[in-house]
Write a structure and sequence with these properties.
Blueprint: E1 2-3, E2 6-7, E3 10-22, H1 26-36, E4 41-49, E5 52-63, H2 68-81, E6 88-98
Antiparallel strand pairs: 1-2, 3-5, 3-6, 4-5
Helix pairs in contact: 1-2
Length: 99
């Protein structure tokens, strides 16, 4: 995008991965993410698993396509850390505009 003759945004194709996990060991979970990724967003909420309500986290990481395995490794580590039966990971392509 050009504004006033200056490029203010650059479009890039990336991938958006989200890890859905139970909100336990919050600080340990954040530390695990920051060890691998400098940029991410965490959403706190309520989830349902097996018909039961639980505190939930959604960790959103937008990265290069080649980093998908790093996110899956992170999800596996979080699953083990929190002693969870399963952790959900979703993936979708996104076009990013860095302004």
């Amino acid at each position: 995008m050009v504004k006033g003759g200056v490029v203010v945004a650059k479009a890039t194709d990336r991938v958006c991965l989200r890890i859905y996990t139970e909100n336990v060991n919050y600080h340990q979970t954040v530390n695990r993410v920051t060890e691998r990724f400098p940029n991410f967003t965490i959403y706190k909420g309520e989830g349902w698993f097996g018909g039961q309500s639980e505190r939930a986290l959604v960790i959103e990481i937008i990265c290069d396509f080649g980093q998908q395995d790093d996110v899956l490794d992170l999800a596996w580590d979080i699953k083990k850390q929190n002693k969870q039966e399963q952790v959900l990971v979703t993936c979708r392509g996104v076009a990013c505009m860095e302004v």
